[in-house]
Amino acid sequence: MSAEAHGPLGRVVLDPESRTNGTDGDGFRERLADWLLFMVPMFIAEQRDASADEIESARAEALEQIASHGDDLQFGGRHQGTSRTALAKGFALLARADGGVSALGVHACTTPHLHCPGERHGAPTSRRP
User: Fold this and answer.
1) Which of 23, 27, 44, 48 is nearest to 101 (CA)?
2) pLDDT of 15-66, one tens digit each?
3) Which of 10, 40, 66, 105 is the one with CA 20 to 30 A from 73?
4) What is the pTM of this model?
């Protein structure tokens, strides 16, 4: 599946409906969402011409990194950078699925679909008094 429908970077937007409830006190969730908004489109572009074998390999690598070092992703540690990168790559892979992916306050997709949170961020609706 190519990213042609939304361009080479796909569509990556904030999605308040997928944000986890509660506050973390230090802004981690907001910073992570902002970071994903920046990184996921680049990985969508990087993966757009990938073969099925390359996609499977990227999926397995991201899964292994996040499963092994997810605590570093959130709390810091030696593997924080590689774990966050794996999370962004995972989002980019999941963006290829029908309906994309919504998690951690971010929605990413590569093709138009019903109920896309990105559609809500389009042209403003006009209201008449």
Assistant:
1) 44
2) 877 776 655 567 888 889 999 999 999 999 999 899 999 999 999 999 999 9
3) 10
4) 0.82
Amino acid 79 reads H
Is-contact 110 5, C-beta < 8 A?
yes
Burial class (CB in 10 A: 0-12, 13-18, 19+), 49: exposed
Q: Buried b vs exposed e over 92-109: b needs ≥16 C-beta within 10 Å? A: bbbbbeeebbbbbbbbbb
- Retrieve residue 90's tokens: 């995972």
Q: Are 94 and 108 in contact (CB under 8 A)?
A: yes
Q: CA 59, CA 82: separation in Å to the nearest integer?
A: 14
Q: Cβ(6)–Cβ(12) under 8 Å?
A: no
* Inter-residue contact 109 to 100 (CB < 8 Å): yes
Q: Which amino acid is at 45?
A: A
d(CA 128, CA 126): 7
